Amino acid sequence: xxxxxxxxxxxxxxxxxxxxxxxxxxxxxxxxxxxxxxxxxxxxxxxxxxxxxxxxxxxxxxxxxxxxxxxxxxxxxxxxxxxxxxxxxxxxxxxxxxxxxxxxxxxxxxxxxxxxxxxxxxxxxxxxxxxxxxxxxxxxxxxxxxxxxxxxxxxxxxxxxxxxxxxxxxxxxxxxxxxxxxxxxxxxxxxxxxxxxxxxxxxxxxxxxxxxxxxxxxxxxxxxxxxxxxxxxxxxxxxxxxxxxxxxxxxxxxxxxxxxxxxxxxxxxxxxxxxxxxxxxxxxxxxxxxxxxxxxxxxxxxxxxxxxxxxxxxxxxxxxxxxxxxxxxxxxxxxxxxxxxxxxxxxxxxxxxxxxxxxxxxxxxxxxxxxxxxxxxxxxxxxxxxxxxxxxxxxxxxxxx
Length: 401
Ligand code: MG
Hints:
By secondary structure, this protein is α/β, with parallel strands linked by helices. The protein has 14 helices and 15 strands.
């Protein structure tokens, strides 16, 4: 029997070339020059993930056989006894994605080939059109269409409702205020206007971002049905998934859900009861490629498509992982895309590129992406307290962001 290739070292690289703090894991092996990279980015708690990897996962994993991805994933998840939290899942993901990268490099195959091979040459992506007014959103959507994008998420002023006239009580604390009722009214007007301006051929998407009370979300999904969205995202918060049966019974608006999920119980019921149309976890938040592959196969059996989470707080390595899953999965829907900066392409050589609204792989073995460590260290993670998630309702009470 040949001697296994083993894990020799695990390194966490924190970097912030753009607005998001990113965590990249590098797994070194016993074979000279052979390493893999993975995304462990939980941007709001980045230093906790770093400690989870360096203080807990690394001592547990050194010396293990790099080929045993599934076993390492299962052992890593159960070893802490308490499991399925965002910090630990992201830490496990960093190692898991790096092991898939290593396996691909050893096999001389891209990860999509390890998963079962390509179902398509490139992945349809959607981009975010934002604006302070409905006219501005329509203009931005049109500009994206001219660049070849066919799927566009439309939002009014970020996640909406923050520019609404609000009467706050005396002594109301500082925070990111929004008005849910006004958000719903103005967003519906905006979607009507954009659809009127851009026509039926472009696919429009919208993210409620769990900003409505459940019954308001039911009303919104009914009201927006006539504009034929490609999907409506996060209509409900994870804590309110019991409302999906009611929502589904009231509206034929396609539903997408999952970016905040980190426990299998959160997605099992939604898939089994066909209560959503697109499952869209954040791959590092659910623990990496290994659990994402399981969910993709499971969802496929129920006719539910994938639309993995892909904003700027997914690292470029995480975006590469998304794309490999997209290319393989027989029932892929659409991929969220954040339009990387030129600097992102320099720090992360191999980052996939978009042409005519399609995201293309580079067909290199493994994930096909790397990190320029010297350049990455020039952009250290800043220490700050996140403000946009300090959300409040008009009377000052705390709300989910
Ligand atoms: Mg979202």
